[in-house]
Amino acid sequence: MTVTIAIDGPAGSGKSSVSKQAARALGYGYLDTGAAYRALAWHVLARGTGAAQDTADETAVVAAASDFPYAISLDPDDYWVRVGDADVTAAIREPRVTDAISDLARVPAVREQVNALFRRLVRESGRPGVVVEGRDITTVVAPDAPVRILLTAAPEVRAARRSAELSAHDADAVAAALHRRDAADSTVVDFLTAADGVTVVDSTELDFTQTVEAVLDVISAVALTAQENPDGR
Predict the structure, then answer these.
(1) Is the pLDDT of residue 84 over 90?
(2) Nearest-CA neighbor of 13 among 180, 145, 182?
(3) Residue 145 near residue 4, CB atoms below 8 Å
């Protein structure tokens, strides 16, 4: 049975890079769930006029989700995302795609379909474990995961990190986009409050290596507890 490590967190918290490195350290697969919403946004835009109103059209979005030839690598050292024959690994990071994600995420039918996709990818991964990161992973996608972590950081730190990742874009524009997405996504899921049983890792004062170590420490602690209490008591 594949072990699921569930990691939630807002944009800029470092959850993608940290989760990927943790997966390498563990010998697990890595699943970037946000890529599915990005790829679906790209798919909707490609099917329509390429304009923002396409992703705001709930009927068009649900139709696109039901015909979504999506594939993603779970190899942390060979990451790619495809929609049909198109490699969209880079294209899904374009600002027009980023701006459309919240429209998709607000549609319940889309979230249900995409969440089922995530569970299938983990189930059929053929790996001993998969680190799954995104939003509402600990509460909706994998609420029964043995390890559930909320990785967060102060808003100004997250904005600075995202700006550094997107060095070709204006820093103020990147920060504004991050805050807009936080506001929009917060209407769908609470990604800043840990649910019962979820461990918080605050990376505000931590560098990348320290954050990875903190996450691995949580995983190790849970594994040790499981060994000491195999019957769950």
Answers:
(1) yes
(2) 182
(3) yes
